[in-house]
Amino acid sequence: MALKAKFYDGLIPASEGLVFQDSVCMGYVMKKYKEHPESDRLEKEIGETIMARTRKTQLFAYDFGKEKIYELKGQPCLIDLEGIYRLDEYRAREKEH
Fold first, then answer.
1. Which residues make Cβ contacts (< 8 Å) with residue 11, sequence separation at least 6?
2. What CATH number labels 15-94?
3. Sign of the four-CA dihedral 36, 66, 43, 16
4. What is 1-69 written as a DSSP string?
């Protein structure tokens, strides 16, 4: 859903591919990445990008924060990509967090 909507475009340079079983996406493969030394600063910048994409796609990132921002070859890279839901599910998911 998020990949089709291009929610993550430019935010996951470490992505290598997806893992499917019986036509269901079960996971993903990432290149080796490291902690980003500026994750505190980048949290606001990337957060604004995610908010703009939420408005455009009607999808939201369930578990975004600076602890999800890493680095690959000097570029910011998000990890833990599975937490994307439709905006109409927000209230139900809010209770889980």
1. 46, 49, 76, 77, 78
2. 1.10.510
3. positive
4. -TTTTTTTTTT-TTEEEEEEETTEEEEEEE---EE-TTHHHHHHHHHHHHHHHHHHHSEEETT-SGGGE
Can you tell me the mean pLDDT for 5-24?
92
Q: Cα separation of 88 and 23, whole Å?
A: 25
Task: List the one residue out of 34, 43, 91 whose CA is nearest residue 64.
Answer: 43
Segment 17-31 mean pLDDT: 91
* pLDDT at residue 14 is higher than 80: yes
**Strand 34-35 with 69-72, pairing:** antiparallel
List the structure tokens of 26.
Answer: 């079960």
Task: Read off the pLDDT of each residue in 38-48 and give the average, rounded to a whole number.
Answer: 93
pLDDT at 62 over 90: no
pLDDT of residue 97: 61
